[in-house]
TrEMBL record:
Pfam families listed in its UniProt record: SNF
Sequence intervals crossing the membrane: 12-32, 44-68, 89-111, 145-163, 175-195, 215-238, 250-274, 311-335, 356-380, 386-403, 430-450
Cellular localization per UniProt: Membrane
Designated name of the protein: Sodium-dependent transporter
Chief localisation class: membrane
Keywords: Membrane, Transmembrane, Transmembrane helix, Transport
Amino acid sequence: MASSRGEFSSRIGFVLAAAGSAVGLGNIWGFPTQTASNGGAAFVFVYLILAFTLAYPAFMAELLIGRYGQANAVTSLQKMSKTTFQKRFAFIVGFSGIIFASLILSFYGILAGQMMSYAVEPVIRTVGFEGIADWVVAGSLSRNLLFTASFMCLTLYIIRKGVQEGIEKWSKRLMPLLIMLLICLIIYVLTLKGASLGLNAYLNPDFSRILEPNLLISALGQAFFSLSIGTSTMVIYGSYISKKENLISLGAQVTLIDVSIAFIAGLLIIPAMYVAQAQGVAIFAEDGSLISGANVVFVVLPSLFNTMETVGSVVAFIFFVLMTVAALTSSISMLETPVSYVVERHNMERKKASTIIGGVIFIISLAIISNIEVLLGLVIATATEYGQPIVAMLACIFVGWIWQRNEILKELQQGNADVENSFFWKIWPWYVKFICPTAIAIVFIHYLNISI
């Protein structure tokens, strides 16, 4: 079955694809500003601990579900089920992840399209088309439609190619490009006035804040959501892994790459913000907190690039290409989740399924664009603050309470014969059964309290 539906041809192929899914726009702008606003290196310290003690076990649960089932999220979960109730529960968990992955892609495509528009703007302005350059970054309905469609076409092109020729091949190209661009920009930004203040804000620990509830919850949320947990993405990627591979080490490698790139991104974003401050750009909000989120990318950094004259155009181009690449490595995994379901459950040809589902998601994007001030925030909250934690929690419950322990052990032993005697096996089953669902529930309740 694996050969007919495709699988990753190499360990590095899976690692880069899964890391690409995990590394997205949130890592590039979300993690750095959260760090700076939550005690600097103290936040990084807590985040790293939670990423490996809580997020990694939950991440492993989803990989195991997929590798065991060798199918889409719904089918894989149902293969683990013994009773009618369990099979219905499996359908709810798996299909919910597919729905939320599709919703995330619907707004992700809009944000990524904006990244593309800001990437082409300096090129257009350099060749003298000032009017077109102004339109490209004006935020108009037509601009959003054009670049969202362009980004979705890129994503669709890769997914139509399949696992090895699409996802794996392009992940091997895009992830090294992303890392190279990050490093080049960091080297350049650190030579500018104000960068040392940014490094101090990012790396100087304030351990007096390490037990603050908001810091702990924020770090926990970042650790879970940055690994694409709760969208069935890692279930489908897990299903493409060879039975010969050691899942424990694979999962650890992906987690390490994800947190490393998030940390490295902080070495770019925070110093760049303080460089912008040195150039007269405001980087603090009225309440004294560091500006975060989209305002960093679309307000603060473009203002910095504008002060850098000719060099600024080059740096702006490289930066927004970086952001587009980060978005693309995540979007291909989001689209693969519903596509794999339709291909396998409804026997539809991959290219046809990809085109239809990509078109449906683009229509959702059009609806969001038509009323972006209201719908964008609503869809983001629904998918990431409510949908992801619930699905992640249910997946952990499924593995911890429904899937039989001896079957889990047999699955792990296929790539690691001595796993029964390992520290992982002595700890992980209890983690995924008790600790992970509880931790995710805490994050979810925190979001509810904020939203009420």
